[in-house]
Amino acid sequence: MQGRQGVCRGGWQLLPLLLVLVLAELAHAGPWLDPGDTGLRHDLQLLADTGVIGTPVTVWPLSWGDIAVQINGSSEVPDAAAGALARVRSRLREEGFASGLQLGVEASLGSNARLIRDFEDLPRQEGEIAAQAEWTGDRTALRLVAQYVADPDDDREWRADGSYAGLVLGNWMLAAAMTDRWWGPGWQGSMILSSNARPIPAFTIDRNSTTPFESKWLRWIGHWDFTALWGFLEDSRDVPDARYFGMRFTARPATWLELGLSRTAMWGGRGRPDGFDTFLDLLLGKDNAGDNVAAADEPGNQLGGYDLRLTGAGLGIPVALYTQRIGEDEQDLRPSLFLTQAGIETWGRLGTVGDYRLYLEVSDTLCGGNITGDGTPDCAYEHYIYRTGMRYRGRAIGHSFDNDAEVWTLGALLNTDAGNAWIASVAAGDLNREGLESSTNTVASVKTRYRSASLVHRHRLAIGELQAAVGFEGFDNRVTGETDDEWRISLTWRQRL
Fold first, then answer.
1. Whose CA is closest to 394, among 437, 328, 448, 443?
2. What is the rounded CA–CA span in Å between residue 378 and residue 445?
3. From CA 479, how far away is CA 80, in angstroms rounded?
4. Which terminus has fewer CB within 10 Å in the chain: N or C?
5. How many CB atoms lie within 10 A of CB 217?
6. What is d(CA 222, CA 427) in angstroms, rounded to the nearest whole number?
7. Using omega within 30 degrees of 0 as the cis cutoff, is the peptide bond preceding 185 cis?
């Protein structure tokens, strides 16, 4: 093993070449659809599985404009997707792709926020209030958010999370953004980039329309997406003001297959080399100290890997299998010491009520653990130079379980024809399961047994939407024998004006 200081040379060197392929397309501007609404994600996934849309849906935020063009051109759809199409069209009319100025307000109140977060956007603190103004033009998109939170964990009472300013160039949106992202097919978490941590301020580039290549040599890739970000981490970390870089390529070569390639890195920061040559070494994977670069010039810490989702929906079988494998190290020019996530899901119609989805997901954040075996502890999201690790403001940038965890999650979702949603989950497993005392693990400093249950209801009102959540989390300390059980409730009201 060559150590955690280098990651993922090999095939991941090909990702920068994708930039060369994407410079000659045309499209228009449109707002982004942020991660956080599990019911809407279910509907979009159902439309993708039945071929109504070709948009890759394992990379968030999504472009409302791309989705709008496809669903507005859909006249005949399978019966299985009719309810989902109606709900997405309704959402689109009310708060989606629209030119001009839109205003919004949001307020939430509750007990302690959940320590373990999933795709659903629940309050991060006990009390929050926010106002936003969003403008969409022919070539510009702007969203300004002002938020106040009570008793924040990171002492930041005033926040601008969710804000962005974007400019369209061809088929690309260039932006300065503080928006949540979610890379991968998982519902409980993502191994490489999720909305667990607060959004990282970044310059970003995102593809607006995911239409296939016109070239007959590349058309087989199908609908595809590419995104990259250049972010700035906080100053209160072991290496202050480190930078965060990430890029992801996602494609749907067939209705039954979606695959993604992802890569992220921390580099630079106070006292570390941060010139163009350093970034080039990082991009080319020249970051193994003593192997292909001097220790003093080591550019950074990286993660890289792949995910895929296979569905039988095209064969009339409502089932899908998915996995995400992210390497925390590199060996023989390939990612190694994988963090592994795997899941199975099914869906269908519940009489005249609405559409449902069930999933079973397991996440193993022990390097090389691969769910069934032993691995290397105190490795995932860690680095011997960047000792704060792949974390931002006290939360893991990747999976909310942080490192060395193995947790199983069973989830259920019901979207009613009236536009309401019920989301439930139960989870159990071990956090920091190797038992090594950690000062950086954000959820468990020692080996801890984890149990949770959650129920969320989103209800459409005459004015806005109400989100009500109740949940339980139990933490059993395997060293001291102490148990910490907490019930958590919250109410959130949102309105677009």
1. 443
2. 11
3. 50
4. N
5. 7
6. 36
7. no
pLDDT, tens only, 157-204? 999 999 999 999 999 999 999 999 999 999 999 999 999 999 999 999
Residue type, 479: V
User: 2: pLDDT confidence band, cut at 50, 70 and 90?
Assistant: very low
What pLDDT digit, counting tens, does each position of 363-396 carry?
Answer: 999 998 888 778 889 999 999 889 999 999 999 9
Q: Which two tokens stand for residue 384?
A: 């011997």
Query: What type of residue sits at position 434?
Result: E
How far, in Å, CA of 84 to CA of 97, rounded? Answer: 17
What CA–CA distance (Å, rounded) separates 12 from 305?
Answer: 8
Phi, psi of 211 (to 5 degrees): -55, 150
Chain mean position to CA 436 = 28
| Least confident piece of the model among 99-103, 243-247, 317-321 | 99-103
Least confidently predicted of 90-104, 246-260, 362-376, 419-433: 90-104
10, burial (CB in 10 Å: exposed 0-12, middle 13-18, buried 19+): middle
Backbone CA torsion sign across 284, 289, 294, 299: positive
Phi, psi of 43 (to 5 degrees): -65, -45
Q: What is the pLDDT of residue 21?
A: 38
pLDDT of residue 279: 85
Pick from 322, 346, 215: nearest CA to 258: 322
Give pLDDT, residue 102: 86
pLDDT-above-90 percentage for the chain: 68
Q: Measured between alpha carbons, how far apart are the two ends of the chain, in Å? A: 56
